């Protein structure tokens, strides 16, 4: 393809795609139409399944600018193809006709960004009738997003709202006035209806789409073929199975669509009020909203129908739909840079950066706070599928393909079966031609061999195990919206845990406070609720610096704020609507202590004299609130004591951040040491600060001032120490995971030392393990980025020097034998800032840090997602367990994301646990392993079923015979379906073991298992087939010969009596057929038992009662009709009566077959191959293990053989992290030594290479 005609859309984003232009070609269409007719429509089906071929065979390449069809290909590892038709949006119909310059602006992409001067846009719109002319904009729709042609970019681009390229200044100056009606109508033409349209497809449409699945087309082909060969019963059985499968599939798909439709329908059409340019309030439907509309938020709240930025007032919002956090969030108006003292005029507005000022679609505004004469207003920034909720719904409607080795290998395996079928196809044609069989029979028999080799019941059989696992997970309180992920969870070898609410209790308990006076720490105090402290600035900060609100009379908000406020025992009162209307400067929220805490006497202390000169009522009003920001790691409020002239600013947040914003002389000298002592003990520490504001800052100025003008030059007041207790089950669960060789990683927004302490307490880091803190600094003042390495001390009560003992550095033990390999016990810890610097400047160090990184603190939501990706890049199968708040991205990105939130945010996570406990993690992994092993068992069994039946038919074809219709029916329905659906019922093993099941079908153990059973089955079938011909009583048969029966005499001899009235057209009733039928029927049951393994991933098969009963009943029935023939059954199954001695001979063949099959599968394979060749250890080291499968100790000679086999094995591990672990064992520079620095090389920026410099 010409490179000039290849463009990239959504560059750098998750849905980045290549785009190619094509035009329809009439002569190609004519040829394809002829081909469709000639192939009976099969070519049309192929083109339906293959979008790339469909476009290339019907179109010719064209410039993207002028093309009629676009071909899209994702740039990820899946390289998926899509095609879309280019359409035209006409601007010629009034009232959308406009001046040429305005239309050109749209065509040039300006309207795509909406960043132009609104006044000019309105002026041009007013002249819309002056030069009416035909103008059209070209666009296409892909995954519910419209992409318009942009002349500036010379590419298609999706229509953006006010969420990109718009400064905070222009939000107020250019967009806060609202739109004219004409401009609104014009934008609506471009943006379309504001709705997240999840259309529930009709049953007919779903049916057509489902029936056109390649699997069902193959079944249809099989049914037609069997019908022509008069296999009506089996054809009807397959049709019934297919109909049941299609109906259940349609029901499940339609149910999911309805659930999703109901979820998004809540805000689909509501009435909203918008402000127009002339300050007129207009009521419109929410579906008519466009970016730039100024929406009035009603007093009693609403469900947001779009994403909007708040420019007036305050809102209390429930964001559980998006974040999973049930705590109401306070949203304040976007700071206006034009009135900000520091004048941050150039800051661009971003919904993520300014999420504390953004109301997101689908979230519920519970209540609003406003001031006299001012409405609570928000500017619409995104609508429809561009909103945060729209993007979430798109990710559900159009999920990324699941990349799992099992499914890739399954397709390869099917291709192998097709190859085998092709051999049988050619053999059948040649054999029948040589035997001068009719052409019609040759075609039917040769095609029949294909339907035998590729079993139609395979997909249903593979799904059964997953469905059963999903049902078992539901019983233990784990709900799954992505069943295919259950198998992937069986491969998890690393799990990331959020800390607060996941590893530790959700709430924090106030342990105590430590105030500061005269830049010195006082002794810690447990009780805060006392008369002595009631009027202190410290308690005033605790009373005001929070985001609590009353909803229906109940105090609600952040759990930390709640605990803090409850500890001081104060009362919070919010102004009512009537009070707000009566006063000019009403305080929106007032806090006051209970009367019993207020001292009756005069003040005792000169420091607070000014406060005590107030009236008897002591109240503090919260004038302005700057909500907590995870990026800034702090929150701030402006408050005023009733009757005081000056306002106060109170701030709380991360101690290191707060201390940096305070006057240095107010911060105690031993601040860092005291903080470190608390964090090492696992306490959550919050610092408080205060500042008296200048009297020139009036109430009105405070409403518009930026937080940077307030948050500086503060007085440090002290620390609040919160205790975050571990959940009772956390240490035991983590110990189980470690025993199972599953790595655990902590990802938290908390302080690093606190996180390290919690990691030690819960057993994630063992007492003897070393912790290396990586402190990365970005480039500054011409200096390159660097990483400082520090070794964290273990928690000790002694006051020893913090100098690192050189002998305490982890020593790596390298041994000749891999089984003696010891894992180096060290862990890396870093914060979010360091992680970002390392990702950007030290790419070659990232894999090494991922191998031993255990604690990641102060991580932002997007950094959590980046961490999951970095771990996946070194071939870890990553699980993520979080409480739903701020973890949505990581939960979706991980191979197995488990949300501990029952709220609607669970829609973003594949798994949701009903009980908020990490005990769900081992349960999920156990069920995943069981489901994965079940999938392997079923696949192996179905492969053997195909090959056994294929070989039976091939042997019989050699004598121009075949299996009878009811013989096929008995094998396929009575044996195969019963066995498949019962062998999948084995529950998961009760505990996690150190080994993981193989990740794919193309692995040594599984291939050996399948191939050995194929050879055994073919061998014993061949033995019976050729041995029967050597018997003295054997009589050869041919098609159209008369069917013969054998009547046994008492002495066991037989005499042949031909039934002259029954010509056997298909030559079914003969000795070879009967022998092959009995032996093969037993073989299906033998391999089912051989493959139904239990421990260590599943419960033993004898505990699967349905399977045991089914197999026993089938064995009994087949033995009965073999040893004691019943005429009616023999007639139906077309079995001939053979001498009793031959029946005993067949029984012996079957018993020997069973012994050999089970011995090879359960003894040789498990004892030798699995334990030695296919055994894996947790860090990529291969060692001898005795836990899988459960066998007794072996003799000395066996151990010698195994040791020799192990030493011969020099194959490098496939997983990157395993290979890296082996490399690092011999790397003298790793891990980094204490007090050393790693610098990035300034010249070689591309590969992020670095050098280690020792600081002396």
At a glance:
Its main location: membrane. The protein has 1256 residues and is of the alpha+beta class.
List the helices and strands and how they pair.
Layout: E1 7-9, E2 17-24, H1 26-38, H2 42-49, H3 51-58, E3 59-61, E4 69-74, E5 81-85, E6 87-90, H4 100-107, H5 110-113, H6 118-126, E7 136-142, E8 145-150, E9 155-158, H7 168-173, H8 181-191, H9 203-211, H10 214-228, H11 232-264, E10 271-275, E11 281-285, E12 294-296, E13 302-303, E14 307-310, E15 314-318, H12 320-323, E16 329-332, E17 358-359, E18 364-369, E19 377-382, H13 388-397, H14 405-434, H15 439-453, H16 458-475, E20 478-480, H17 484-489, E21 494-497, H18 499-503, E22 509-517, E23 520-521, H19 537-544, E24 549-551, E25 554-556, H20 559-568, E26 571-574, H21 577-582, E27 589-592, H22 609-612, E28 620-629, E29 634-641, E30 648-653, H23 655-660, H24 671-680, E31 683-692, H25 699-704, H26 707-710, E32 715-723, H27 730-739, E33 743-747, H28 752-761, E34 770-777, E35 786-792, E36 826-831, H29 832-841, H30 846-852, E37 853-857, H31 861-873, E38 878-882, H32 888-893, E39 896-899, E40 911-913, H33 920-957, H34 965-983, H35 1004-1028, E41 1041-1048, E42 1054-1064, H36 1071-1091, H37 1105-1123, H38 1127-1133, ...
Parallel strand pairs: 21-33, 21-38, 33-37, 34-36, 36-37, 38-39, 39-40
Antiparallel strand pairs: 1-2, 2-3, 2-4, 4-5, 6-7, 7-8, 8-9, 10-11, 10-12, 12-19, 13-18, 14-17, 14-19, 15-16, 15-18, 20-40, 22-23, 22-32, 24-25, 26-27, 27-28, 28-29, 29-30, 30-31, 31-32, 34-35, 35-43, 41-42, 43-44
Helix pairs in contact: 2-3, 9-11, 10-11, 10-15, 11-34, 14-15, 14-33, 16-33, 24-28, 30-41, 33-35, 33-36, 34-36, 34-37, 35-36, 35-39, 36-37, 36-39
């Amino acid at each position: 393809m010409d490179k000039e005609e290849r463009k990239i859309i959504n560059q750098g984003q998750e849905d980045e795609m290549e785009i190619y232009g094509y035009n329809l070609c009439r002569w190609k269409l004519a040829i394809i139409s002829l081909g469709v007719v000639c192939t009976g429509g099969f070519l049309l089906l192929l083109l339906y399944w293959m979008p790339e071929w469909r476009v290339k065979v019907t179109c010719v390449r064209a410039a993207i600018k002028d093309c009629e069809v676009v071909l899209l290909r994702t740039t990820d590892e899946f390289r998926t193809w899509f095609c879309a038709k280019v359409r035209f949006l006409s601007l010629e119909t009034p009232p959308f006709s406009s001046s040429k310059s305005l239309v050109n602006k749209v065509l040039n992409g300006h309207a795509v960004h909406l960043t132009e001067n609104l006044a000019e846009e309105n002026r041009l719109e007013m002249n819309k009738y002056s030069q009416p002319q035909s103008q059209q904009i070209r666009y296409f729709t892909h995954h519910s997003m419209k992409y318009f042609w942009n002349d500036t970019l010379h590419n298609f681009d999706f229509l953006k709202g006010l969420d990109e390229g718009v400064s905070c200044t222009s939000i107020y100056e250019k967009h806060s006035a609202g739109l004219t009606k004409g401009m609104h109508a014009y934008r609506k033409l471009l943006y379309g209806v504001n709705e997240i349209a999840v259309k529930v497809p009709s049953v007919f449409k779903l049916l057509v789409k489902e029936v056109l699945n390649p699997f069902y087309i193959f079944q249809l082909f099989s049914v037609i073929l069997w019908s022509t060969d008069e296999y009506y019963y089996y054809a009807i059985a397959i049709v019934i199975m297919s109909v049941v499968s299609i109906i259940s599939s349609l029901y499940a798909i339609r149910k999911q669509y309805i659930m999703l439709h109901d979820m998004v329908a809540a805000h689909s059409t509501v009435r909203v009020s918008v402000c127009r340019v002339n300050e007129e309030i207009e009521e419109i439907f929410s579906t008519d909203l466009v970016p730039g509309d100024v929406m009035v938020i009603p007093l009693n709240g609403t469900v947001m129908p779009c994403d909007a930025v708040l420019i007036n007032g305050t809102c209390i919002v429930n964001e559980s739909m998006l974040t999973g956090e049930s705590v109401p969030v306070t949203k304040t108006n976007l700071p206006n840079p034009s009135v900000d003292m520091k004048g941050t005029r150039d800051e661009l507005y971003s919904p993520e950066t300014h999420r504390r000022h953004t109301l997101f679609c689908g979230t519920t505004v519970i209540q609003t706070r406003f001031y006299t004469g001012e409405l609570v207003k928000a500017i619409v920034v995104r609508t429809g599928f561009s909103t945060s909720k729209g993007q979430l719904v798109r990710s559900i409607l159009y999920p990324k393909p699941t990349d799992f080795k099992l499914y890739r290998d399954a397709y390869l395996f099917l291709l192998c079966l097709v190859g085998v079928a092709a051999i049988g196809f050619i053999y059948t044609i040649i054999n029948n031609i040589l035997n001068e069989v009719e052409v019609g029979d040759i075609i039917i028999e040769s095609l029949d061999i294909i339907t035998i080799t590729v079993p139609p019941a395979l997909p249903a059989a593979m799904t059964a195990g997953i469905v059963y696992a999903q049902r078992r997970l539901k019983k233990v309180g784990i709900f799954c919206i992505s069943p295919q992920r259950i198998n992937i969870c069986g491969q998890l070898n690393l799990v990331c845990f959020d800390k607060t609410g996941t590893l530790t209790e959700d709430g924090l308990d106030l342990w105590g406070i430590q105030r500061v006076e005269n830049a010195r720490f006082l002794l810690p105090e447990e009780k805060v609720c006392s008369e002595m402290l009631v009027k202190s600035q410290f308690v005033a900060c605790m009373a005001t610096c929070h985001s609590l609100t009353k909803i229906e009379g109940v105090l609600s908000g952040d759990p930390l704020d709640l605990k803090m406020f409850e500890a001081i025992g104060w009362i919070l009162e919010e102004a009512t609507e009537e009070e707000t209307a009566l006063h000019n400067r009403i305080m929106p929220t007032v806090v006051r202590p209970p009367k019993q805490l207020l001292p009756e006497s005069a003040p005792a202390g000169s420091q607070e004299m000014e406060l005590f000169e107030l009236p008897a009522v002591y109240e503090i009003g919260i004038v302005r609130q700057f909500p907590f920001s995870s990026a800034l790691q702090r929150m701030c409020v402006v408050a005023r004591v009733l009757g005081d002239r000056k306002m106060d600013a109170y701030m709380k947040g991360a101690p290191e951040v707060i201390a940096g914003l305070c006057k240095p002389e107010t911060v105690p000298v031993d601040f860092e040491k005291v903080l470190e002592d608390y964090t090492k003990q696992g306490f959550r520490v919050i610092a408080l600060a205060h500042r008296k504001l200048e009297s020139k800052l009036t109430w009105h100025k405070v409403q518009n001032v930026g937080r940077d003008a307030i948050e500086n030059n503060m007085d440090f007041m002290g620390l609040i120490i919160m205790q975050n207790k571990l959940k009772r089950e956390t240490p035991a669960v983590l110990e189980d995971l470690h025993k199972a060789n599953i790595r655990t990683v902590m990802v938290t927004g908390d302080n690093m030392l606190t996180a390290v302490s919690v990691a030690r307490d819960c057993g994630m880091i063992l007492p003897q393990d070393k912790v290396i803190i990586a402190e990365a600094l970005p480039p500054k003042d011409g200096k390159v980025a660097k990483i400082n390495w520090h070794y964290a001390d273990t928690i000790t009560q002694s006051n020893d020097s913090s100098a690192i003992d050189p002998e305490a550095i982890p020593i790596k033990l390298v041994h000749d034998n891999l089984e003696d390999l010891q894992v180096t016990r060290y862990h890396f810890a870093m914060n979010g800032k360091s992680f970002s610097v390392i990702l950007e400047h030290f790419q070659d160090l990232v894999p090494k840090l991922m191998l031993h990184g255990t604690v990641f603190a102060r991580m932002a939501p997007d950094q959590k997602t980046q961490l999951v990706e970095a771990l996946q890049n070194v071939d870890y199968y990553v699980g993520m367990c979080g409480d739903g708040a701020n973890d949505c991205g990581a939960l979706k990105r991980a191979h197995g994301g488990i949300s501990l939130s029952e709220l609607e945010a669970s829609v973003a996570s594949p798994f949701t646990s009903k009980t908020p406990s990490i005990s769900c993690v081992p349960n999920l992994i156990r069920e995943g392993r069981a489901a994965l092993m079940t999938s392997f068992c079923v696949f192996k069994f179905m492969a053997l079923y195909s090959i056994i039946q294929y070989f039976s038919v091939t042997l019989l074809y050699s004598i121009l015979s075949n299996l009878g219709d009811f013989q096929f029916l008995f094998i396929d329905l009575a044996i195969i379906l019963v066995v498949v659906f019962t062998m999948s019922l084995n529950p998961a093993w009760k505990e996690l073991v150190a080994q993981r099941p193989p990740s794919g079908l193309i692995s040594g153990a599984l291939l050996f298992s399948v191939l050995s059973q194929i050879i055994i089955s073919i061998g014993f079938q061949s033995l019976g087939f050729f041995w029967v011909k050597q018997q003295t009583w054997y009589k050869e048969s041919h098609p159209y010969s008369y069917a013969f029966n054998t009547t046994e005499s008492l002495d066991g001899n037989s005499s042949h009596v031909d039934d002259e009235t029954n010509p056997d057209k298909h030559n079914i009733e003969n000795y070879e057929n009967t022998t092959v039928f009995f032996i093969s029927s037993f073989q299906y049951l033998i391999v089912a038992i051989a493959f139904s393994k239990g421990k260590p991933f599943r419960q033993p098969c004898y505990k699967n009662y349905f399977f045991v009963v089914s197999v026993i009943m089938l064995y009994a029935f087949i033995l009965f009709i073999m040893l004691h023939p019943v005429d009616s059954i023999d007639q139906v199954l077309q079995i001939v009566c053979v001498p009793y001695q031959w029946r005993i001979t067949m029984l012996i063949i079957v018993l020997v077959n069973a012994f050999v099959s089970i011995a090879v599968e359960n003894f040789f394979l498990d004892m030798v191959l699995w334990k030695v060749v296919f055994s894996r250890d947790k860090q990529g080291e291969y060692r001898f293990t005795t836990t899988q499968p459960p066998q007794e100790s072996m003799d000395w000679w066996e151990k010698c053989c195994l040791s020799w086999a192990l030493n011969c094995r020099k194959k490098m591990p496939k997983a990157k992290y395993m290979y890296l672990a082996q490399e690092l064992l011999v790397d003298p520079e790793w891990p980094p030594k204490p007090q050393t620095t790693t610098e990035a090389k300034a010249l070689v920026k591309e590969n992020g290479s670095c050098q280690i410099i020792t600081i002396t």
